[in-house]
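User: For a teaching handout, I'd like to show students what a predicted protein-ligand complex looks like in token form. I'll give you the sequence and the SMILES for flavin-adenine dinucleotide. Please answer with just the structure.
Assistant: Understood, here is the input followed by the structure.
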Amino acid sequence: MEAIEYTTPKTLAEAVQAMADKGDRARALAGGTDLLVQLRGGRRSADLIVDVKDVPELNQISYDAQDGLTIGAAAPCYQIYQDPAVAANYPGLVDSASLIGSIQIQGRASLGGNLCNSAPSADAIPVMIALGAVANIAGPNGTRQVAVEDFCTGPGRNVLESGEVLVSVTMPAPQANSGASYLRFIPRNEMDIAVAGVGSSVVLDASGQNFVSARISLASVAPTPVFCREAGASLSGKAVSDEAVEAAAQLAMADAVPINDMRGTVRQRIHLVGVLTRRTLNIAIQRARGEE
Amino acid sequence: MVAAYSVVGQPVVRGEGADKVSGQAIYTSDITLPGMLWGQVLRSPFPHARIVSIDTSRAAQLPGVHAVITGQDIPDRRVGRLLRDCPVLARDKVLFVGEKVAAVAATDPDVAEEALLLIDVEYEELPAVFDPLEAMTDAAPTLHENLASYPGLPRPMSPVNNVFAHNVWDKGEIEQGFAESDLVFEHTFTTQLMHQAYLEPHACVVDIDSDGRVQVWANNKGPFMLREQLAAVWELPQEQIRINPCSIGGDFGGKGSFMDVPLCYYLAQAAGRPVKMVMDYIQELMAGNPRHPGLITLKTGMKADGRIWARQARTVFNSGAYGAFKPRVHLRGADHSGGPYRIPHVHIDSYMVYTNNIPCGHMRAPAKPQVTFAVESHMDLIARAMGLDPYEFRMLNVLQDGDANPVGEEWLNIRAGDALRQAAETAGWYQPKAKPYTGRGISISDQPPGSGQSAAEVQIDADGKATLLMSLWDTGTGAHTVLRQVVAETLTLPVEDVGVVIQDTDAVAFESGPGGSRVTYTSGQSALGAAEDLREQLTVLAAEYLGGAADSVTLQAGQFQAGDGRAMQLKDVAAQAVATLGEPLSGQKTYTAPPSEYTSYCAQVAEVEVDPETGEVTVNKLVTAHDVGTVLNPLTHQGQIEGGVIQGLGYALMEEMETEEGRVSTLSLGDYKIPTIKDIPELVTVLLEPAGGPAPFASKGIGESSNTPVAGAIANAVYDAIGAPITQLPITAERVLRAIRGKEG
Ligand SMILES: Cc1cc2nc3c(=O)[nH]c(=O)nc-3n(C[C@H](O)[C@H](O)[C@H](O)COP(=O)(O)OP(=O)(O)OC[C@H]3O[C@@H](n4cnc5c(N)ncnc54)[C@H](O)[C@@H]3O)c2cc1C
């Protein structure tokens, strides 16, 4: 490992400045559960580490019934799932935050790091996509917003330009009769990389018998997280039924373009997308009906 | 009869535990010597290739590099635990991805690493063979052309291509057995490459004194055997080599290996400085000495009434590029291909085969987990085909006291049936299952304590405190604590008053070290013998001090008592003796263990639940029933049982070193999966009433027994749950799903 410079900016402006000064040779550090492993393993290199854990905007979690939930990019998982507002309004997000790594990893790992690391297998991204989350980005040229489904561009690659940092992620306030869920399949019960993962959200009508809308997103079956636009849209206006859920699952399977690797075969992964889409939709429906 | 013990049988916590959790225990990688350099190796990227040329000149010029060596720079000699077939550095050819082709010693690991990048090797790729059956055909390349010249090669040599050991076990008349059978069943099973996954990778330090004495630190559990292997390859007298003790961070059979020690010496010699080599986990997974994959075909002749009449087994073990990492060349556990059953006619062929894969070594009960998975799965396939309950089918055939086992061995006090019955009863074998896709599976195997040689000394000082001196390295099992209990019991001392000092290889003539469930037996007997020797000496002295005859003096609770009621504290006897002698009083024992007359059965029942949509297997509960002797320490005893079960669970469900064209692709402990705490099922342990054993206080070994039957129990439970057998390990979700689909057509 080479010698690396390290800085701890106290404000967002300082963080952006530090990132911009070193350009491509600077890397933001949140929990470090991806970054430090990659640096040590020689899979990434950097001249400057910008530790963003002292920047207030990146570490706050705020909820407002009007504006929704904004989670600072560096807030660790345990703070997210222990937050009462998150627990009450975003159980789907709790699913993801509480299965990343292990208790120890959850003490450090952040949603922002999960998103910026942009792994196809990232467990927090599908549910953010399902919830319609937006990434708030700051850079030398000011701020911008990008829908999370448009954030990742390839394995380990995303829309962040040199000098930019992810400030936070905003999820809209949950609509009435809505619910979301995330499930993944792994060969053991924790500390593993998804063979396939699915995040789903639904909005039902007041009767709880019909879909108003739905969003479905996949992990580990393509070079980036997949937003299954059609699969979600296929449910809008439909009565809640096993057939409708199955049809959406079939559409989600069609969006999966996995590879064969040591974690699983193409066939198994596509099959798992079907199973997990059905299961996450059914959990989301239950949550929307207040049954869980 | 249950003897009343005061220290034996108590849950004494590990003496060495505090040093380990506080970071004070010294492991090999903690050894730092003045002027020490770091060694690194360049490994082959090809599974089979000729080395055309190696240019080390650029590496040698890198500042901080003190030595760069290749196979041409060292004597052309091969090393091995018994079969000496492994070059220290490849000379003309490489036989697996990860084989060592050059080595560097430099001032720090980063420089050494950088120097490796500056070594230019030109290879000419050769046709490679990875499948052992293919390797056994004449069309396959012969990987060791000079096989006949290797010291340690078993004779007669097999005529089969790439086979370096062919072992046969025979009982009865196999042909006749099949002729007399009403039904014949044949199935083939495959098991995977598995790493021991100890925490501490292989490491060593070698220092050559100015007078030529070679000092070695290595995480090798058999230092005396290591010394023999090193003396052979370095062509030095054994006395010139000293192996110094270190704590060993986990063994599971993998730490009997010489690994980098032979090479480290040549680096130290070339650099004129001490050299340290520490493998990282990538290298461990690429070039350690993992458990052999097995291809096991079992053919069984049955009588219509459910009796097993004939068993033919063919076990083929893919040994990889070298056979050097096995202390016996073959894998003895293949003799368990009959299981613990009454079978009159048995024939077992076991083949060790060279391929262009990672060379395999020993792991916890070598070959037994492989063949037991096969045997116990085969049992259920037969039972179900014949409409028999798997448990009752086993009870009908299991060995009874007085029977000879399938390879003709006779054991005292066979309790295989008891173990099965207790496992089945505890698990509620006949209880209805809660829901569909749940299943129960049963499995059994046995493990006798291994024999060996051990030397011990027990000293007592003026303060009445005893010290056990042995050359038995600590591999993390808690053995030292158990041995202290044995000494304390014998001298009627509190266990805190018995310490352990671990000695180097100069101190005693030979110690076999841990392995084959032998420590409690072999080292236990030497510790006991040394303590008894000391007690006798103390008794004679006590009699003298008390003015009575020695045979009238007894030792109880730290006090010597004469027939006339006079008494003297043991520590006062010790004080007076030490004052007179001018040095501690010492008892000694060298013990050569005869083969144990006892074995130890372990029967298990697993309860699983299968997700029919994903194929995921969840083990809900595992019952493990053990035919034990006296339990010397319930904590360390249970530790071995639990660790063995968990390792067995990993073997059954998830652990696999996957390879592509000989290249291991699971090169981290993220990709090579061992169970985590969330994978551990409820475990119910049943210990049968202690009934004798060859180790001190009628105890037995426990190190390997719980690990062997697990995969069979889980596989049979999955079979029960889904109605289709799984014949390949590990039992991944994908395989289970395929089996469900196959059944549904
Ligand atoms: C043992 C272990 C188990 C794991 N298990 C899982 C798992 O189950 N599921 C899963 O999805 N992941 C898992 N991971 C990966 C990792 O923990 C997660 O991706 C985590 O969310 C990363 O967050 P972090 O805060 O640690 O990110 P860091 O490592 O700090 O950063 C990750 C990347 O994002 C960049 N980055 C971070 N913050 C910003 C920012 N504000 N602006 C711009 N760039 C930024 C960094 O430069 C780096 O490239 C595991 C990792 C380990 C070590």
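For the handout, you might add this sentence: The pocket of flavin-adenine dinucleotide is lined by residues A 27-35, 37, 52, 58, 73-74, 100-101, 105, 108-110, 112-114, 116-117, 122-123, 160, 165-166, 191 (CB under 6 Å).
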